[in-house]
């Protein structure tokens, strides 16, 4: 195996977190940085145009599931199978990562999400906690996170309206949000007709609607790094595609313009990291079983497969793992770093607290055309009256909640055609169905829900014992299912959403059928959390609150894999805020005195 010259910092993954860390470190220190990204630069594919078939149907931007994918099962007694079709989640591959085709919805987590266990117990007592739950506080609070959230909002350029400015509640913003030290950098994006109907309906029912915060420009915007982006053209090609004009914040439009000028940063594409090499690695044959007794030591660098297919060793003094939740977990398992979680004994931490997002919608069949071909990522109106613990759960059969809204992100005919009211009792074929589907194409509005899945002892990651990737490495295995808490939450929200749909003027609303088992075929957001969660002690988490690995002080982990629980909010604002926090810790503490920070 070829060994390359050493670098000071090695970053695995060139998505939101990896490139933000590269930007911060290169701005504030003289260290040499190598970023290894398994995919390529995809800008030439879309900069001069794109089409729906390629990007929405054939999923141009996504990781290829025939080569790299997790396996899935619902509980420890089942045999898992590889997920070979695009379904529940859509991770990306290539420069910018998933951040290129994300939706840009940009809400902060509510303050109590960081103290989920203690706040729930304080309000309702231990008895209210669902069976099998494994909730634990993060070790950082919202107050500590606030300045980092604000920094990330200025960097990516967020449009929105504050609902809680330094403790003062402001109608029109989300009055249930945590306090904010400053207003959003830009006013909200436009409110399309569907979302305006939702606002009226929500007000009529006594709720508190607000324009959603989004990292899409409502006007021309220049961020603190001097990167300028034009105002959004509301073209409707946003979520699942990159932006053709740069209005949506993407790592390639926000971070790459700065990084390209930094001589200390080398971005190597088509470089798939296979192992993090550390003191406790026994050999390089990759088949040594993990010995949890061997802790401590240092990361020495990584091995990766380069463009020619050759495996090379890249030595480094500091390793940053920022390859999205799935790869973060996968690489730690494959590298034998940390103690794998065992659900039978409760021992170990690596792989624990896997959470996804509770996400579904009801269809409202409305009297007037909605012009849904127009839209922008994250654009729309929501209510948070049923979010988190904003409402009293004392007499409800579940804890926590989420946001309800009508988003106008743009819809395309190939991928969304075919909805008709259920009362028509039509099969999904034939002349009558086609006519009705054309009739209703632009009159079907979705009222959507984005809610929390709390962590459970039985939901976790590990390595699959059967299936391997083309390199011969075991696939990552996900063991995940819904519990009664999510099922009851969905039932409750479904009713509220149908009521809202009718208040919007819908003649008919098709409710969501409800939750049975976790269904991998239905898209439910690419918000997968956990597995390398943070904690204030090594027996409770994989990383400390600076996201530094508890066993290996020169290894930091970035991304939603460090979340002990999900929120109802989309994760990227919290992911980027934590990345800033880790960057500060590395610059201000670690590089001055390498070692454990906590
Ligand atoms: C359709 C869609 C809509 C979304 N909408 C929103 C939204 O509205 N709001 C929100 O907050 N979030 C949203 N998300 C989620 C958001 O995209 C992610 O939270 C965010 O991109 C995570 O950043 P990351 O750096 O952790 O991972 P990524 O951005 O995925 O970057 C990880 C990078 O690591 C690379 N990599 C992986 N394994 C290896 C390896 N072994 N070697 C080298 N490189 C590797 C990948 O190719 C990738 O480029 C959405 C996601 C999708 C798919």
Written overview of the protein:
The chain is an alpha/beta fold. A hairpin with a 7-residue loop joins strand 4 (71-73) and strand 5. Helices cover 22% and strands 19% of the residues. It contains twelve helices and 24 strands. The chain has helices at 16-28, 43-46, 52-57, 116-124, 142-156, 193-204, 251-259, 324-335, 413-416, 431-441, 484-503, 572-590, and strands spanning 2-3, 7-12, 33-36, 71-73, 81-82, 164-165, 168-169, 210-211, 221-222, 228-229, 265-268, 272-278, 299-305, 311-321, 352-355, 357-365, 380-383, 402-407, 444-452, 460-468, 474-479, 508-510, 529-531, 555-557. The protein folds into two domains: 1-108 and 140-157 and 249-355 and 454-477 and 523-598, FAD/NAD(P)-binding domain, CATH 3.50.50; 186-243 and 357-452 and 482-517, no CATH class. The protein binds flavin-adenine dinucleotide.
Task: Output the number of helix runs.
Answer: 12
Bound molecules: flavin-adenine dinucleotide
Hey, roughly how much beta strand do the residues contain? 15-25%
CATH homologous superfamily title of the largest domain:
FAD/NAD(P)-binding domain
* Mean pLDDT reading: 95
Structural class, judged by helices and strands? alpha/beta
| Count of folded domains | 2
* Distance separating the two termini: 36 Å
Judging from the principal axes of the Cα atoms, what is the shape?
globular
Main sheet specs: 8 strands, mixed
Q: If you compute it from the alpha carbons, what radius of gyration comes out, rounded to the nearest whole angstrom?
A: 23 Å
State the helicity in percent bands: 10-25%
> What's the CATH class label of the largest domain?
Alpha Beta
CATH topology type of the largest domain:
FAD/NAD(P)-binding domain
Q: Compute the number of strand runs.
A: 24
The poorly predicted ranges are 281-294
The CATH architecture designation of the largest domain is 3-Layer(bba) Sandwich
């Amino acid at each position: 195996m070829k060994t390359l010259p050493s670098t000071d910092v090695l970053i695995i993954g060139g998505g939101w977190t990896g490139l933000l860390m590269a930007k911060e470190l290169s701005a504030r220190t003289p260290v040499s940085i190598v970023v290894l990204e398994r995919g390529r630069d995809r800008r030439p594919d879309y900069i001069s145009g794109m089409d729906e078939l390629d990007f929405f149907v054939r999923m141009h931007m996504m990781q290829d599931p025939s080569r790299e994918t997790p396996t899935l099962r619902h509980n420890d007694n089942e045999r898992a199978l590889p997920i070979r079709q695009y379904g529940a989640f859509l991770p990306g591959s290539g420069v910018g990562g998933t951040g290129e085709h994300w939706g840009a919805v940009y809400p902060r987590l509510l303050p109590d999400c960081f103290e989920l266990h203690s706040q729930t117990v304080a309000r309702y007592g231990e008895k209210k906690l669902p069976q099998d739950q494994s909730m634990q506080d993060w070790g950082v609070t919202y107050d500590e996170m606030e300045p980092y959230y604000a920094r990330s909002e200025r960097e990516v350029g967020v449009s929105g309206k504050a609902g809680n400015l330094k403790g003062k509640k402001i109608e029109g913003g989300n009055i249930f949000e945590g306090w904010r030290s400053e207003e959003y950098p830009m006013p909200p994006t436009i409110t399309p007709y569907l979302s305006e109907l939702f606002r009226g309906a929500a007000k009529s029912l006594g709720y508190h609607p607000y324009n959603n915060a989004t990292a899409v420009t409502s006007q021309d915007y220049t961020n603190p790094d001097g990167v300028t982006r034009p105002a959004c053209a509301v073209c409707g090609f946003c979520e699942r595609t990159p932006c053709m004009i740069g209005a949506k914040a993407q790592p390639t439009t926000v971070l790459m313009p700065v990084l390209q000028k930094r001589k200390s940063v080398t971005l190597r594409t088509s470089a798939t990291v296979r192992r993090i090499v550390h003191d406790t690695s026994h050999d390089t044959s990759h088949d040594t079983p993990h010995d949890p007794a061997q802790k401590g030591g240092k990361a020495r660098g990584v091995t990766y497969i380069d463009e020619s297919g050759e495996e090379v060793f890249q030595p480094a003094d500091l390793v940053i793992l920022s390859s999205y939740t799935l790869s973060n977990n996968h690489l730690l398992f494959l590298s034998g770093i940390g103690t794998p979680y065992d659900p039978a004994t409760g021992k170990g931490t690596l792989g624990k607290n896997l959470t996804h997002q509770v996400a579904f919608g009801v269809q409202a069949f409305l009297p007037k055309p909605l012009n849904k071909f127009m839209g922008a990522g994250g654009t729309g109106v929501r209510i948070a009256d049923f979010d988190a613990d904003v409402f009293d759960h004392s007499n409800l059969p579940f804890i926590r909640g989420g946001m309800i809204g009508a988003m106008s992100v743009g819809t395309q005919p190939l991928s969304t055609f075919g909805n008709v009211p259920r009362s028509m009792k039509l099969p999904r074929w034939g002349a009558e169905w086609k006519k009705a589907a054309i009739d209703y194409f632009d009159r079907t509005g979705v009222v959507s829900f984005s809610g929390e899945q709390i962590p459970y002892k039985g939901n976790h990651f590990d390595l699959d014992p059967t299936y391997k990737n083309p390199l011969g490495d075991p696939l990552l295995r996900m063991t995940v299912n819904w519990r009664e808490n999510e099922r009851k939450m969905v039932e409750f929200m479904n009713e509220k959403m149908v009521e809202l749909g009718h208040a919007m003027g819908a003649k008919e609303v098709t409710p969501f059928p409800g939750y049975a088992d976790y269904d991998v075929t239905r898209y439910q957001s690419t918000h997968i959390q956990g597995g390398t969660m943070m904690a204030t002690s090594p027996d409770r988490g994989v990383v400390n609150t600076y996201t530094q690995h508890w066993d290996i002080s020169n290894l930091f982990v970035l991304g939603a894999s460090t979340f002990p629980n999900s929120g109802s909010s989309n994760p990227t604002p919290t992911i980027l805020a934590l990345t800033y926090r880790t960057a500060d810790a590395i610059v201000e503490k670690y590089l001055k005195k390498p070692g454990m920070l906590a």
